[in-house]
């Protein structure tokens, strides 16, 4: 069974969000990384780019598959985890520590459409 953290919010497309003021820290869930296998590449937007809730912002590639990343919130990318360039496998070893991007949210109300841990557990099992 996948690890699901109570303090995070989740999208149905398996991204997680940690809220820090007006900043959304975004990564992928333990379930998502385990389904993909060993992640070999992370494609992300640049700082200053805009992302929109529910729209693709990047992709993960693994030995098994390629999977798009969908933004759980809208806003401006204010940070990108450059450590994933050198070691994309950090997502496999620490999916909740290896954030992918940080977004300054343009509409915190969008958080209301995300799932809590219990609801996410029902779809991620």
Walk me through the topology.
Elements: E1 9-10, E2 15-20, E3 23-28, H1 30-36, E4 39-43, E5 50-51, E6 56-62, E7 66-70, E8 75-80, H2 83-86, H3 90-93, E9 101-105, H4 117-124
Antiparallel strand pairs: 1-2, 2-3, 3-9, 4-6, 5-8, 6-7, 8-9
Structure description:
- The protein starts with 8 loop residues before the first strand and ends with a helix.
- The strands form two sheets. The chain has a six-stranded antiparallel sheet. Strands 4-6-7 form a three-stranded antiparallel sheet.
- The longest helix has 8 residues, at 117-124.
- It has a single domain (9-124), classed as Beta Barrel (OB fold (Dihydrolipoamide Acetyltransferase, E2P)).
- By secondary structure, the protein is of the alpha+beta class.
- Helix content is 18%, strand content 35%.
- It has four helices and nine strands.
């Amino acid at each position: 069974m996948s690890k699901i953290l109570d303090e995070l919010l989740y999208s149905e497309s398996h991204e997680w969000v940690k809220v820090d003021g007006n900043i959304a820290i975004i990564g992928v869930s333990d379930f998502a990384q385990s389904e993909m296998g060993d992640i070999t590449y992370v494609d992300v937007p640049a700082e200053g780019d805009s992302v929109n809730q529910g729209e693709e912002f990047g992709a993960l590639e693994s030995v098994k598959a390629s999977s798009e990343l969908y933004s759980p919130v809208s806003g401006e990318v204010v940070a990108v985890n450059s450590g994933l360039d050198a070691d994309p496998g950090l997502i496999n070893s620490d999916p909740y520590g290896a954030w992918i991007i940080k977004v300054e949210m343009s509409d915190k109300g969008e958080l209301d459409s995300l799932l809590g841990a219990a609801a996410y557990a029902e779809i991620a099992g």
